[in-house]
Design a protein that fits this description.
Length: about 400
């Protein structure tokens, strides 16, 4: 069976984790701090904190900004549940908007229509590794008429003086737009390093801070270090210094710090990311494109837009099959599975899921999101996928589609 997205675990990873285990320092320590610096250097943003998940990063930033009951956060209906769940945790209301008609990314026009005096944050999602149109989103939140609607109710909100753009960049480490890497495209971006991501730390995430003046991003980093470790004013590394045992709790914080074991994996991964990982992932996408472009039913995903100097990080290959129904898509997938090839769907739109349906959301209000979902099949993209396996995937997909559409 060809798996969907196993992590790359090679001797370099094993050696790095073993060295960390033998070092005597396995929780947040020197490796985590180094990984944060490497991420900041790589992405070109102002400061970065590593945490145990992207989900934790999104929620901690919503809480830092003072989002709470009575507030609204705008996000796409087409995303994974984590993007909306964190909004629910704060007591605010997720406001779903549709995607663009021609791609999986959030519609800026739909964002504009959804903005009210209750809107505090916009959370665009960089689907499949492709950055959203942050130039347009950044311009929108800075427009005078939009800023006039903004009603701040926390110190951070008053300082910013406008809606915060908090990018769910879980898919987009290494993506580029107009010469800037994801992480430096807007106010704050949150990455995921889950096992299925391009760059993994087994479990983990990071908050890339890129807030404008007068914010001190390094000071916010220090504040987030406290918030992510029980509100304790010293981490374990600081407490281990001679005579420095005494600490204080200065807020009711959370427990979502990254460990050095995870960071050790991340350090190996980021060192070879552009020169090796992304090269292989692009090769896989190119092979799929070259073969599938010959079929009229294949709606190929866009990973590069030359006119906008935008390139994804090739995280997913979301193939759409023209002219089929959701039922036919499911039948195609079953035929692919029957040929020992794993595929997936990214994503079931949130208004189709029980929890959000029960909150009153209805998929009929998001026709583009449903249209993208109904005929989408995600093909495997992972580092150790061989050319022989690629051919097996393509044979399975082509035969399955043609059997169903000719039935």
């Amino acid at each position: 069976m060809i798996p969907f997205s196993p992590p790359r675990i090679d001797q370099k990873i094993i050696d790095a984790v073993t060295e960390t285990l033998l070092s005597g320092w396995i929780t947040t320590g020197p490796k985590t701090k180094l990984f944060e610096k490497e991420l900041t250097r790589y992405c070109g943003n102002k400061s970065t904190i590593c945490l145990n998940s992207a989900t934790a990063g999104l929620e901690i930033m919503l809480r830092w900004f003072g989002v709470g009951e009575g507030d609204e956060v705008i996000l796409p209906a087409y995303t994974y549940s984590a993007t909306a769940n964190v909004v629910m945790h704060t007591g605010a209301r997720p406001v779903f908007v549709d995607t663009n008609e021609n791609n999986f990314l959030i519609s800026v026009a739909a964002i504009e229509k959804a903005i009210t005096t209750k809107t505090k944050v916009i959370m665009p999602v960089d689907f499949a590794g492709m950055p959203c149109d942050f130039d347009a989103i950044n311009a929108l939140v800075n427009r005078a008429d939009v800023k006039t609607k903004f009603a701040p109710n926390s110190d951070a909100q008053k300082t910013l003086g406008r809606i915060l753009v908090l990018a769910d960049a879980a898919h987009s480490v290494g993506a580029v737009s107009k010469g800037k890497k994801s992480g430096s495209l807007t106010d704050v971006s949150v990455f995921s390093f889950h096992a299925v991501k391009n760059l993994t730390t087994a479990e983990g995430g990071a908050v890339a801070l890129n807030l404008p003046a007068p914010f001190d991003n390094e000071a916010i980093y220090q504040q987030l270090c406290i918030s992510s470790l029980h509100g304790q004013n010293k981490d374990a590394l600081a407490k281990m210094q001679k005579g420095n045992w005494k600490y204080d709790i200065i807020e009711a914080g959370y427990k979502c710090n990254m460990t050095d074991m995870c960071a050790a994996i991340g350090l190996v991964e980021i060192a070879r990311y552009d020169s090796d990982t992304l090269v292989k992932r692009k090769h896989i996408v190119d092979v799929y494109n070259q073969k599938l472009k010959n079929y009229s039913w294949a709606n190929l995903p866009v990973h590069q837009v030359q006119s906008e100097q935008t390139e994804s990080c090739y995280h997913l290959y979301p193939l759409r099959i023209n002219g089929i129904t959701e039922i036919q898509r499911d039948a195609i997938m079953q035929l692919i599975f029957d040929q020992d090839v794993s595929v997936n769907v990214h994503f079931i739109p949130l208004p189709m899921l029980s929890f959000y349906k029960n909150q009153g959301y209805n998929i009929s209000n998001y026709p583009n999101a449903y249209a993208h979902f109904a005929n989408e099949i995600t093909l495997p993209v992972f580092y150790n996928l061989t050319d022989e396996q690629l051919n097996q995937v393509l044979t399975a997909v082509i035969s399955a589609v043609e059997k169903v559409i000719k039935a």
